[in-house]
Specification:
By secondary structure, this protein is mainly α. It has one domain. The chain has 8 helices and no strands.
Length: 195
């Protein structure tokens, strides 16, 4: 039980602090609102949950032991984050409504596999808090469920903050400035990945 509480605390800290997922959720909340962003949250849950199963059953060893795999993930993740930062900042579109659609569950789940913060989160959780008293698969399932339960309110908080801000950002000039700031914030996470 102590492993589960430790996992819940790690999950809370990891899920509520700024990172690529939360910046994207915030931007989606501003642009699309809570209801249209729910599939994005679902995708994060599915992505993180499946990563826990993959890492918990042994593939995580490959990622941590073979530097080329880790570096490849960092490069792919960095390029994708920069692309998303450009899209959030406006992506060359002058109309807020035509810039993008909310992420689908599949897109958000797939993003977790190139999200370096998600890898650090999952690897730290599995190596530190997997219940030793349970078989590997059962322990990984319990971990995935705990992490997913904790992620829901944290993700909803970021989307809710974005939805709340959307009223203030109804003005086109403020909205453009905010999107540029979010794009820059997301691009800054790439620097964090390589430090």
């Amino acid at each position: 039980m102590s492993e589960i509480w430790g996992l819940a605390v790690l999950s809370l800290v990891s899920a509520v602090t700024p990172g690529p997922n939360n910046v994207m959720l915030w931007a989606s909340g501003v642009q699309f609102g809570m209801r249209r962003t729910l599939p994005h949250i679902l995708g994060i849950l599915l992505g993180v949950g499946s990563m826990v199963l993959v890492v918990g059953t042994g593939l995580g060893v490959l990622i941590t032991e073979v530097p080329a795999v880790e570096n490849t993930l960092k490069v792919i993740g960095s390029v994708y984050l920069l692309y998303l930062a450009f899209q959030i900042a406006g992506g060359g579109s002058s109309d807020r409504g035509e810039a993008a659609q909310p992420l689908t569950p599949f897109q958000a789940a797939a993003f977790q596999y190139v999200n370096p913060k998600a890898w650090v989160f999952v690897l730290a959780a599995v190596t530190t808090f997997r219940p030793a008293s349970l078989p590997v698969l059962a322990g990984s399932l319990v971990m995935a469920l705990v992490m997913m339960v904790v992620i829901v309110p944290c993700a909803s908080l970021w989307v809710g903050a974005g939805t709340f801000l959307s009223r203030y950002l109804a003005d086109q000039r403020r909205s453009q400035g905010f999107r540029i700031a979010l794009g820059l914030l997301l691009a800054a996470t790439v620097v964090y990945i390589w430090l």
